[in-house]
Every structure is written in C-alpha cells, then in structure tokens.
Amino acid sequence: MPTKPFALLASRSEDAAADGEYASFLRLTGLRADELVRIRMESGRFTPLDLDRFAGTFLGGSPFTTSVPAEHKSDDQLRIEAELDVVLGEIHERDLPFLGTCFGIGALGRVAGGVVDGTYAESTAAVEIRLTDEGRDDPLLAGLPPTFAAYVGHKEACTVLPPGAVLLARSDACPVQMYRLGRNQYVTQFHPETDRDAVITRMSVYRHAGYFPAEEFESVVVRVSGVDVTDSHEVVRAFVRRYARPA
Predict the structure, then answer these.
(1) Residue pLDDT, tens place only, 155-180
(2) Choice among 21, 81, 92, 102 that is catalytic
(3) Any residues with CB less than 8 A from the CB of 101 and at least 6 apart, and which?
C-alpha cells in the first residue's frame, strides 16, 4: 500500500555534506527517495509548506548557530530561520510528528521558548547517551538500551528546556541530549542519522568550521572510528515505524 512520504528539511549548502546527510537518512531509515522528500532550504524560499502532505518531518543538522546575535548571521541564515519558525510554529501548535537532529534543538527551542547557547558545546566525538526514566518509558525509544553511543559535534545546546518539554536523554558533558514536546515532537542534540562514513565526510567538509581543531583531523577520525553507534540509529528507524501512514 502506498504511504505518505516523510519530509527532510535540510540547510547544508555544501553538496558533499548535504548529499551525505540525505543518503544517511535514506540508508538508516530504509526509506526510498520517493518516500523521503528532501527540501533544501538554503536553495531558496520553501514556504508555504503543506505539512499535511507528509507523514512526519525530519530536520537535519546545519552549519548555522541559532544562538549567535542576528548581526552575525548571513542573509541566508536569517531567511531560513524566519521561514523555519513558521513551519515549526505550525508543527508545535498542531503537535505534528517531528524529529530534529542537532540543529533541531535550537530551531524548535526558538519557537517553543527554550534557551539555547554555547554553554554545553561539544567537539566532534562519539559519547555515551543515557536515557532518563521518561526516556526509557517513551514509545519512540522503547527499542533502545538505557545507555548507547552516538556522534555529537555542536557549538550550542539547550540549557533551559522549553515549557512542557520532557527530558529523554542526557550525557556527561551535555545535560540535554534529547527531549519531547507534546506527544509527537522530538529533538536530539546527538546525530542518530549519522554513521562512521557520514561523520567523516562531514568532518572533511567542516574541517575548518570550529567543530574540532583542524590540525587534529586525523586523530579525530581515529577517535570516532573506534565506537559502535548503531544503537543510536534506532531513533530514526523508530520514528518512521511509528508515524508511517497510508497515502
């Protein structure tokens, strides 16, 4: 039976990073290209967006930092954020199925009233994620062990949860690694859509972007290569299983 497609909102202007992210979502969710519609927000205006076309919406990672002052943001970032605020405002108001990875923490936090800043930034690495009691009880995370490894690499993180948010996961260096709003809106600080090859591709693209010291590239590759992060991929798979709908 035909199913509604999912949407992937993407904002990476570098084709290698953008295509690698899309390929990762396809590979790890098991969706076909016609089942995961990629919307490259950086390529031009993408609203109005009919969210009823989709079974659910993914928001991929981004080189943008939402918490920097507006005067330090590019025109593209300001436009994307303004349009994305409208889309996420509708998702939040209607409690539509949503999973934002990394950038989603800042993007949904902007709309929902959380505080995101640079207090808990993390260099590119694989870290131990620990589910909270609420995380262990959450239907999206039912198939996950209480602790698992996942890739991180971010310049900002959530320091104050939005009103009504439920904390689902944390790590030693970052107290908010995942939360839920309503019944259907999820965000992760870690990257459940990323495997070893994808994270190395992304490291190559953003080698000089400040996620790790550029001169330490090779040692970071070794560090991220030696960790099994396959459990983290269950988050994106479970999202698809939970929200897949007939067309």
Answers:
(1) 999 999 999 999 999 999 999 999 99
(2) 102
(3) 58, 59, 60, 61, 187, 188, 190, 191, 192, 193
